[in-house]
Specification:
The complex is a heterodimer.
Chain A (H helix, E strand, L loop, with lengths): L1 H25 L2 E7 L6 H20 L8 E7 L4 H13 L5 E4 L3 H14 L3 E3 L14 E3 L4 H14 L4 E7 L2 H17 L2 E8 L7 H9 L4 E5 L3 H12 L6 E3 L6 H6 L8 E4 L15 H15 L5 H20 L4 H9 L4 E2 L4 E2 L15 E6 L2 E4 L2
Parallel strand pairs in A: 1-2, 1-3, 3-4, 4-5, 6-7, 6-8, 8-9, 9-10
Antiparallel strand pairs in A: 10-13, 11-12, 13-14
Helix pairs in contact in A: 2-11, 3-4, 5-6, 11-12
Chain B lengths: L1 H31 L6 H17 L4 H24 L7 H23 L15 E3 L2 E3 L1 H23 L1 H11 L1 H6 L4 H27 L5 H16 L4 H21 L5 H15 L14
Helix pairs in contact in B: 1-5, 1-8, 1-9, 1-10, 2-3, 2-4, 2-8, 2-9, 3-8, 5-6, 5-8, 6-8, 9-10, 10-11
Classes of the chains: A alpha/beta, B mainly alpha.
Chain lengths: 382, 290
Amino acid sequence: MPIMKNVAGFICAVLVASFATASLAQEPIKVGAFLSITGGASFLGDPQAKTLKLYVDKINASGGVLGRKLQLITYDSQGDARQAVTFVRRLIEDDKVDFIIGGSTTGETMAVVPMVESAGLPFFSMAGASVVVEPPKKWVFKTPGSDRMAVDRIFGDMAKRGLKNVGLIAGSGGFDQSCRAEAKGLTGRHGITLVADETYAPTDTDMTPQFTRINGAKAQAILSCGFGAATVITVRNYKQLGLSAPFYFTHGVASQQFVDGSGGAAEGVRVTVSAILVADDLPADDKQRDVVMSYAKEYKAAFNERPSAFGGFAYDALQMTIAAIKRAGAMDKAKVRDEIEKTKDFVGIDGVFNLSAADHMGLTAEAFKLTEIKGGEWKLLQ
Amino acid sequence: MSDLAQFLFSGLTRGSIYGLVGIGFALIYRSSHVINFAQGEFVMVGGMATVFLLAAGLPLPVAALGAIIVATLIGIAVQVLVIQRMRKPSTLSIIIVTVGVSMLLRGGAEALLGRQFFSMKGFSGDAPIPFLGAKLTPQSLWIFAGLILTTVAMSLFFRRTMLGKSILATSSNRLAARLVGIDVSLVLAICFALSAALGALAGLLTTPVTLTQYDVGIALGMKGFCAAILGGLTNPFGAVVGGLILGFAEALSGGYISSAYQDAVAFILIIGMLLVRPNGLFAGPAADRV
């Protein structure tokens, strides 16, 4: 019975076609991510991967965006720029993602910028350095505050206390040297003179010669640019020599390990930190308070570990993009890009964002909170 | 004047650390003509084990002893499970195996303990001692004392004990040593155990100053290796002097020239010394292996 066969075939075709259109309407919005989940920068990428997973699941559980679910595709680039290039190519060409969040480090980010620019899709980086958005690139945005803002905040505080002669001590690594370069560039703005400029290797075991020189140069305040174990040694050596010039650190040391490791030597040290570290201290009228508190609570509940500012970078990137998609009314890459650029007064973990065509980060120095370590705790300075 | 004293104290602290790590290199080299590139990792294991045993509530002496035992067992395991099983253990292939062991220990520590750094308090507190217008931490004295005691103990061990002499005999002629009844593989196992124990001792003494992290062994191992080379590898006493020279060179060049170039100055000094004395400062004549 050939006719019957044809009818059956027709019915089948209709059914398949209707399923296809139904699944087209349901097709998820694809979120691409490449993060340093393992390797040297895993302290950045690990909380970022966890944060993205947590909030993509939460958004999907509450119905998704514009009726579409989110599909998260994550690759581990291990802090390696070459792997980042491979994975971003895969995200764009094979996975056909709608937007990308990633690049835990500056190196990975800068390596993929040309590819993202030519493919034309929104890209939120979580890299620290200012070079990511200066000059602004059409499709590239970033969420972390830069070290320039941190140094700006610190110099502002020094100037307010009348401390004009500043000694600088920095590691020889990339993060440290970037901060050091910003410090040299910002002196004029606050009427500060750098009277000493000392360096140490990240593997150094004793920095007392550097502090002896800083002390000899009659520095009224000291700024340290660095992170990791070396900063604990610097603060201990500072204490060992009994120096009295106030000591400032940037957000590189904003971890409990720094306070615990320094064994009391960090008392009185001032540090610029992300709001999340002082969530409980934030005054009730602080715009960020609610956002930071709820992120901290949800992250802790999901992973049973302290939330960090680094995970917050991913939170802000995801939420800002989702908000832009909603405003655009559809997942149209160009429209979403335009909407991200128009983001105003977005209250995130990392600060209050006001983006523009000229500023693809949108934070001011106020995004960093200045704290003093008292009794082993971070105390917010008003 | 007090600046100079401060620079010298800094040099003493650094130099003692480098020397203490360097002794372990010299010990293995002396007995087997192998450079043990896992020596830095034994330092890390010693520091880590002490930190964790202290955190478990043990008193310091017990934790220190426990850390040395842990490292020693790892050292024996390396010899018994890896090096002894090699078909043709040439010096070069053993050296390459130690590189592999160092990666294994580093990766194991990373997987087990994470990437963050760990710290412990100084043995006699952290209050600095004022001296000659400069300040010294008590832990620096502990490290220096550990260095001196280790050197003396090693020297007595090699001169006065049968085991020490067997090690020297194995070193100078393995076949002859076997012929006179020395169990060569036992001697090598003891050497690895001993150098692991020395590494752990270095680790637990220096951790209050340097802190510890899964990869701390790379940097400390490199500096300790330089100290041993400078002193002439075969001579543990040489490693001590080499370490101190390196430490003082770094501290003084950091203090008087520029902290940005302190490592460069120290390494230029090493190259210069090796040009004058290619076998190191305290090595015997190079002909002893013929």
